[in-house]
Design goal:
Blueprint (H helix, E strand, L loop, with lengths): L18 H11 L10 H11 L8 H9 L1
């Protein structure tokens, strides 16, 4: 006979340094741990919101900003 266990989804916000500790605990307890990674689009949109946007006068200026 199989026992049914109620589960709960929980969202935690913690420093990246503590994530390995949480993984260790969850593995020992038999919990499942899923992390959401941001896509490139999400990171780009965050940069735009923060104002991390650069403008180039022309193609030479763009190359100069990329390589310089």
């Amino acid at each position: 006979m199989q026992t049914i266990v109620a589960t709960e989804n929980v969202q935690l916000t913690l420093p990246n340094a503590d994530l390995s500790f949480l993984r260790t605990i969850s593995k020992k307890m038999g919990w499942s741990l899923k992390t959401k990674r941001k896509s490139g689009i999400e990171k780009g949109l965050e940069d735009i919101q923060k104002g991390n946007v650069y403008h180039a006068k022309n193609s030479e200026d763009l190359i100069k900003q990329i390589l310089g």
